[in-house]
Write a structure and sequence with these properties.
The chain is 35% helix and 14% strand. The strands form three sheets. The chain has an eight-stranded parallel beta sheet with strand order 8-7-6-5-4-3-10-9. By secondary structure, the protein is α/β, with parallel strands linked by helices. It contains 18 helices and 14 strands. Helix 6 packs parallel to helix 7.
């Protein structure tokens, strides 16, 4: 699809050649390809043609640990908007889950998606714990948006609501979203206070004012020298009629919008009618999960109808709510969430970029920054530095800390394991903790050394009031497989503890 044909009939101009870049050499471009203010008669088509040729010379650093951005200085990196325009110009339909904070955006990128949206519904929920009824402000949305765009390298389309006021407010909103690093912005024609388009009581601005706000957005883009993608949304389908929504979409395209979006279309037939409006302008579909007004269709079906990009606004915030509710119910019932329901700690650290951080940290390590280990501790369980004699025997540098794991051998070495020791005789035994849910499915089955009794209650808090040490003493001469406990907790889950 040729974006230049979406707003005019001019032919696409070839991009000027760019020489290869080495070290800090900056390529020379024709000035008309990067200066948006050379003429006061720049058309919307010229904006798009210019944006395709524009490049940004930058010294890239990693935006967030674990990200995929380039680390080398002196690279030509396309702007977020240019990445999005390239995506819109590529074949096929493109899916964009909606994120609500930096972590959810990182997960979208890690999953392999090429772009994402922000959702006012989700940000209002996650940041304020409030419904999407116009309570969240421009400042809160742009602040959250900047954190999101800094966390990822994929282009992000920001939810700009209704621009937070009149046409002048729209201009400020667009410029603020540009500075925050957004690739695109969605602007709608609802009156204030606005709300989710699939909820009741939607009201829209008069036609003329709605169109002028899109023109204001285009002017703000031009004044900023940006190529941010403007997604024009109308909520008039539910507020007024399908015919009115189609009329406004045509008018928005004529005003310079890059992508068109009618929210809350009620049938597949209405979606087809929408995609026939200004056919050369890309269309956005909104697949509101969980029971919106628009039918949920597959990407292939949406592509056949004529859509170019698809938003999934509630998937991430929705599953997050349910997962947290389930985890809280598990904790309330005296146990922790099952291992299958959550990532391991190592996986969490990988997602957040701990490992990448540690690797990069090594580049700046100095001798003075190495940890100093305490010596002479009377605690047999603490980490110790080897003494001078041990250093001479092993030939190891005395400046290197030696960390020994606590196991039966080292436990005895530090004075444990005598006849009076409470753990004596059970180091070779294991406790098996098994939980069967009231639905009959296994939720937990783990084995831990019997010596680490505290670890049992960390795994299953419901065992906190049970004297497992006394049960072990009674069973110390039993053969493996002895059932120590078998009871049902307050949630109806069956908890069993075996001595192996």
């Amino acid at each position: 699809m040729n974006l230049s044909s979406s707003v005019c009939n001019h032919r696409s101009l070839p991009s000027p050649p760019v020489k290869s870049v080495t070290n800090s050499t900056v390529p020379t471009l024709h000035t008309t390809s990067i200066n948006p203010n050379l003429t006061s008669k720049t058309s919307a088509c010229d904006n798009i043609l210019r944006s395709r040729r524009s490049v940004r010379y930058t010294s890239m650093i990693t935006a967030s640990y674990g990200g995929d951005r380039a680390e080398n200085d002196g690279v030509l990196d396309p702007s977020p908007a240019e990445k999005l325009r390239k995506l819109l110009d590529s074949p096929g339909v493109h899916q964009g889950p909606a994120c609500f904070n930096a972590l959810s955006a990182k997960l979208v990128e890690r999953a392999g998606f090429q772009f994402c949206f922000t959702t006012g519904f989700g940000i209002s929920a996650a940041r304020l714990g409030l419904p999407d009824t116009g309570l969240i402000s421009y400042g809160e949305m742009v602040d959250q948006g900047q954190l999101i765009t800094e966390a990822v390298s994929i282009p992000v389309i920001g939810d700009g609501d209704n621009g937070y006021g009149n046409a002048m407010n729209v201009k400020r909103t667009v410029k603020g979203y540009i500075k925050a690093g957004f690739a695109g912005i969605i602007l709608e024609d609802q009156v204030s206070p606005k709300a989710c388009g699939h909820t009741q009581g939607r009201k829209v601005l008069p036609r003329e004012e709605a169109v002028m706000k899109i023109k204001a957005a285009v002017d703000a883009r031009k004044e900023s020298g940006s190529d941010i993608v403007i997604v024009a949304r109308t909520d008039s389908r539910q507020a007024l009629s399908l015919e009115e929504a189609l009329w406004r979409s045509r008018a928005f395209a004529d005003a310079g919008a890059d992508v068109l979006f009618i929210d809350a279309l009620a049938s597949k037939e209405e979606m087809k009618a929408f995609c026939e409006v200004s056919p050369q302008v890309p269309k956005m579909a909104n697949m509101l999960e969980g029971g919106g007004k628009t039918p949920i269709l597959s990407p292939l079906e949406l592509e056949e109808i004529g859509y170019k990009i698809i938003a999934y606004p509630l998937s991430l915030i929705g599953v997050s709510i349910r997962a947290m509710e389930d985890a809280l119910q598990a904790i309330k019932g005296g146990r922790v969430p099952s291992p299958a329901s959550m990532p391991s700690f190592e996986e969490v650290k990988e997602v957040l970029g701990f490992n990448a951080y540690y690797e990069e940290e090594k580049r700046y390590a100095t001798k003075s920054s190495q940890p100093v280990w305490q010596t002479g501790s009377s605690n047999p369980f603490s980490i110790q530095r080897k003494g001078q004699d041990d250093t001479e025997q092993t030939g190891q540098s005395s400046t290197e800390p030696i960390v020994e794991l606590l196991n039966p051998d080292t436990y005895s070495k530090y004075g444990g394991g005598d006849a009076q020791d409470p753990f004596s005789g059970i180091w070779s035994r294991k406790l098996r903790v098994k939980i069967i849910g009231r639905d009959g499915f296994e939720k937990l089955d783990v084995r831990i050394p019997a010596g680490f009794l505290d670890g049992v209650t960390n795994i299953v808090p419901a065992l906190g009031g049970v004297n497992i040490k006394a049960l072990l003493d009674d069973a110390k001469f039993e053969v493996g497989g002895k059932l120590l406990l078998d009871f049902t907790d307050t949630r109806g889950d069956r908890i069993q503890v075996f001595l192996e």
